[in-house]
Amino acid sequence: MLAYERQRFARHLCISAFFLLLLAVSWAQLEEEGNESSTSDERLGKVAVVGSGIGGASSSYFLRRLVGSEVEVHVFEAEGRVGGRCKALKHTVSNGKEKLFEVGASIIFDKNHYSRKISRELGLNHSRSRGRSFGLWDGRRLVFQSLHLPWNQTNPSPFLTSLGLMARYGRSLILLKSLVKKTLDSFLKIYDKQEAGESFETAEELWSALGLFHLTQETLGEELRLHGLSDKLLRELVGAVNRVNYNQNNSLNALAGMVSLCPLVAGSVFAIQEGNAALPEAMIRSSADFLNLKTRITRVTINSTSSDRRYVLWSGDKEVGGFDALVLATPLELATIEFFRIRPDGEEELKLDDLSNIDFRTTHSTFVHGTLNASRLTGVEKSLWMSRMVRGRGRVPDSIYATEDSQDFFTSISHYGHEIYKIFSPRRLMKAEIDQLFTVYKVLEEKEWKAYPHFHPPETLQSFRPIADERIYYVNAIEKAVSAVEVSAIGGRNVALMLCRDVFPSKCPKQRDPREEL
Ligand SMILES: Cc1cc2nc3c(=O)[nH]c(=O)nc-3n(C[C@H](O)[C@H](O)[C@H](O)COP(=O)(O)OP(=O)(O)OC[C@H]3O[C@@H](n4cnc5c(N)ncnc54)[C@H](O)[C@@H]3O)c2cc1C
């Protein structure tokens, strides 16, 4: 078990030598008994957060900001590391330097305020990969690729590439930009609402307040066709973006689809230089009192006769503590946690109905160090009007994205320099398939993810309070509409606001009456 004690908490305990002594004694007890609850200050509200991904980290971070020192936050994480679906591969490259390559969530959109601002505030750096080229692969050939100025074959020209896209997709591209921009403007309203202390009991209420709920009820394909976008744009550019982001075609819900298109049409992206997992790590370090790694929560019992430390958490047959409130920051469909209500007359298992029937897409990330077999990937559509010069002299684009038409076994292949490639695929790659792509190679890492919900609208959205009237909050209720780092951070702030209002009402901004906005 790892425990981070916040400096403030330590200062508080250091006010007298007696307290120091007490701390030393209880610390010794903690090590001896392995029971962290023995260190707790009984005057504090005790909150458990299950999951140390960005959702759990955000809950802890915003709760601390709201409540200050009156809350004791305990984070429980099943794995031996923090970050969940943010995970980097460390590899020593040809120049002898260690580099990080993102295995899970790789890019963060610039307009994602929480990820951008909090990472800066916590001293993390941003890295941006500029000048990358891309191509759209229909399974047999590149139907589009970034364009180069004849005298610069290294970096593509954004201007020429935009012209090329306009030439291929015409008015549909302009329409797409304006639709995505409109969705983004609505999405950005969440920041003002949360700053003003507004919270939402259900994901439906949250997306409705932003005027976006209707997009969760229809497919992206339906929404875009309704606005007259061409089939070609949908199958190629839009299809490729959704396959790489969600491993799904345009039948996913329109909200998830629009959000995944934002970086393409409305801004740039960055990654955390120290690795994207450094963001949840820094947020937890700055806000939680205890971080318990390798502690899978398997069972929660709710003591219906007590309001004090009402929620008792178990890891296997070990009780890990009693809490006043519980934040669940992991998809419950995958977490296999059982819930029981303890009554004077016995124990009743609680079934969380709206969690059934949600499946998660499997996505494989495969990292390869090797030499690409360029001839496998540089076939070009005959009708392409571009000259060989502007296509970058037949070089393979840095990233190749499979369009909706592609029957190929990969959804994307990206080159990160130093002959390191990341391949996303819906299933594990077979050796014969990797043999096709590389002339010589070594597989560095393979990771199977239960990556994101399988979106199929109309979506039935979940509640941030999965058990009525209980102080149990579910961050990932937000994920059934859209799955992204920033979306989990928003979910985390929402549950922090709900929890604050329920457990620490004097500390919390009053809920704004929606009628005030009329
Ligand atoms: C391959 C891939 C690529 C992606 N690319 C991007 C991208 O480029 N940009 C982007 O914004 N998003 C991307 N995403 C989505 C993004 O990673 C997720 O939406 C986000 O990280 C989810 O964070 P979370 O905290 O809600 O969940 P998670 O990160 O899944 O965190 C949940 C944590 O809970 C822990 N846990 C589970 N069960 C228990 C238990 N019983 N007890 C204790 N702990 C438990 C897990 O081990 C995990 O650490 C990608 C996802 C994948 C898989």
UniProtKB/TrEMBL annotation:
Keyword terms of this UniProt record: FAD, Flavoprotein, Glycoprotein, Oxidoreductase, Signal
Cofactors: FAD
GO molecular function: prenylcysteine oxidase activity
GO annotation, biological process: prenylated protein catabolic process; prenylcysteine catabolic process
Signal peptide: 1-28
UniProt-listed InterPro entries: FAD/NAD-bd_sf, Prenylcys_lyase, Prenylcysteine_Oxase1
Domain Prenylcysteine lyase, residue spans: 160-502
Entry annotated with the keyword Oxidoreductase: yes
Family stated for the protein in its record: Belongs to the prenylcysteine oxidase family.
Protein name: Prenylcysteine lyase domain-containing protein
Species whose genome carries this gene: Hanusia phi
